[in-house]
Amino acid sequence: MAKKKSEDKKHIPVVNKKSLAFFEKYINNPSPTGFEWKGQEMWLEYLKPYIDTHYVDNYGSAVGIINPKAEYKVVIEAHADEISWFVNYITSDGLIYVIRNGGSDHQIAPSKRVNIHTDKGMVTAVFGWPAIHTRSGEKEEAPTLKNIFLDCGCTSKEEVEKLGIHVGCVITYEDEFMVLNDRYYVGRALDNRAGGFMIAEVARLLKENKVKLPFGLYIVNAVQEEIGLRGAEMIADYIKPNVAIVTDVTHDTSTPMISKITQGDMQCGKGPVVSYAPAVQNNLNRLLIKTAEDAKIPFQRQASSRSTGTDTDAFAYSNGGVPSALISLPLRYMHTTVEMIHKEDVDNVIRMIYEVLLNIKSGQDFRYIK
Questions:
Q1: Per-residue DSSP letters for 63-75?
Q2: pLDDT tens digits, residue range 62-118?
């Protein structure tokens, strides 16, 4: 019996062993909003062999540049920061209450292990929670910002402070990178250091394939996206690009308790997601779609209503308007410590950005009316 055409197609991996080793190291390294510099150093070190020069702004957004003297500038961008917590209050008996740094989910916190970042080094702690035996009544109290707390093994405020912990110390989860069923990458902060990894891989492919771009390429890993796209706002003003292609994650809506009616229909393993939103420039978006079709890269579609909620919005509305588009990576369990992305989707996002760059011409004008 002859195989169907779809069965004959074999996915060719883009990510190699060396780059995967970097990806694991990069994901395991904490990079909380406002404190991204160690991750940025690591990212730049990996990127340097594939670029001509680089720039880091005052708040830590990092940019690798290829062909820096070119007048026409194209940005490919991701954001570097991850959700985290701040120490907000230390009780007299040595327990610690927190506030969010970004969109941290209070419901997943109980029983999680964390690292508290101090000037004296890392201090380990746990989010405590009352044992099931001690909770009574028909209505159990759910985790909220008012009742989740950290226990670092101290019995007084003074003992906590001797460890170097003070109000304002940042807190990150301890969970590390893993591969699940040889199909998914799993870890915290795949939102969106997976994006930083993918744009770095695009730079690697350009170098290895000896591609000479007719424009300047700015590979941007921006900070502070999780608190309002702030890093992208700053770096867009500095670069003043002609085109911006942003990559971020979006929801896999095939898992339980998510409404496809409100969230759309996207699934890990079915390819990158192309967005439709006011900030997405239609002619640039058409180029993305045509490129994917011509290169036989599977893709999905998403409608994002008023805003994409990503750095696309910051680039699009900067500098009098920059043609911008968004390529998203489907992800399960966003803002948890077990975020999941499909290996083939990672490869295909990299391929899609790479192929689009080959199709952009220096000086290309994406306006509707000229």
A1: EEEESTT-SSEEE
A2: 999 999 999 999 999 999 999 999 999 999 999 999 999 999 999 999 999 999 999
Same fold, 12-82+188-359 and 84-173: no
Are 151 and 107 in contact by the 8 Å Cβ rule? The answer is no
At a CB cut-off of 8 Å and minimum separation 6, what does 359 contact?
Answer: 287, 290, 291
CATH of domain 84-173: 2.40.30.40
Which helix (H) or strand (E) element contains residue 368?
none
Q: Which residues pair with 301 in a beta bridge?
A: 274
pLDDT tens for 338-347 read 999 999 999 9
* DSSP string of 110-177, one letter each residue: TT-EEEEEETTEEEEEEEE---GGG--SSSPPPP-TTT-EEE-S-SSHHHHHHTT--TT-EEEE----
Which CATH number among 3.40.630.10, 1.10.8.60, 1.10.490.10, 3.40.50.11030 corresponds to the domain 12-82+188-359?
Answer: 3.40.630.10
